[in-house]
Amino acid sequence: MEAPLHPRRCTKAFKGKGELRQRLHEVERQLDVLRRRMGQMKDQTRSVRGRLFALETYVKRGAGAMNLRWRLVVGKHALWERDIEPALAGFPADMQAWYRRAHVAALILNVQERCLRYEAVALGKLLLRLRE
Of 63, 82, 107, 125, which sees the most CB atoms within 10 A? Predict the structure, then answer.
């Protein structure tokens, strides 16, 4: 039978705040990288000559959420299924494929951003609770 742990020796042994802070910094770094990639996606779609639509980044105030959305050149918001995909019928096959890949990449980036932002908020709240 093992001897019980002495309370004075173990006061900080299992708090784990250092690892949590380290993970929070890593998540924040990943968010920065991801948001730069979102900006690059936006720039790529805007660089298409004669484009009718492009991805734009939207930042939700307060929450700091960023996501990619389609927008028509004339300034209106656009939905993929309603506006973009039907318009692709008149494009060459390689451009259609490129836009579809861009759309899938935007969807993935949006989900990754949401997940990382959620993790950062959760870690921040946990660190605050552990401070109490």
Answer: 107
**CA distances (Å), origin 21, targets 15, 75, 130:** 12, 42, 11
What is the residue range of 90's domain? Answer: 17-131
Note whether residue 120 is domain-resident.
yes
* 1 assigned to some structural domain: no
Identity (one letter) of the amino acid at 99?
A: Y
Where do we find the tokens 């300034």?
A: 75
Q: Please give the pLDDT value at position 7.
A: 47
If one counts every other C-beta atom within 10 angstroms of the C-beta of residue 132, the result is 4
- Please state, as a whole number, how many other Cβ atoms lie within 10 Å of the Cβ of residue 59: 11
Residue pLDDT, tens place only, 83-118: 999 999 999 999 999 999 999 999 999 999 999 999
> What pTM was estimated for this model as a whole?
0.83
User: Do residues 123 and 27 lie in contact, with contact meaning Cβ atoms separated by under 8 Å?
Assistant: yes
Q: What does residue 9 show for φ and ψ, rounded to 5 degrees?
A: -75, -20
